[in-house]
Amino acid sequence: MERSSLLYYEQKTAFTINAYNEQALYYLAERVGTPYYLIDERALRANYEKLKSAYSGFNGRTVIAYSIKANFNPYILNFYSGIGINFDVTSPEELYFLLKSGGNPEKVIYTSVTEGLNEYKEILSKGVKRVIVSSLNGLNNLISAAHELNKVPEVGVRINPEVQVKAEVKSSFKISKFGVPLSGSSSETAIKLLKIIEGNNNVVFGGFHFHLGSQIEDPSAYVQAFDKLRAFLKKAKKETDYELKFLDIGGGTPVNYGIKVPTPEEIGMQNVDKINELINETGKQFELVVESGRFLSAESTMLVSKIVNSKFYNSRKIIYLDTGYHQLLDIALLQQIYPMEVIPTDDTANSQDEKPLVAGRLCDSMDMFQVGPESKLSDADIGKLVVIKNVGAYSIVFNMPFHSQVKPAVIYRDEDGEYFLARKKQTVEDLYEEEGGSLLNNEVRLT
Question: What's the CATH code, domain 12-40+298-434?
Answer without folding.
Answer: 2.40.37.10
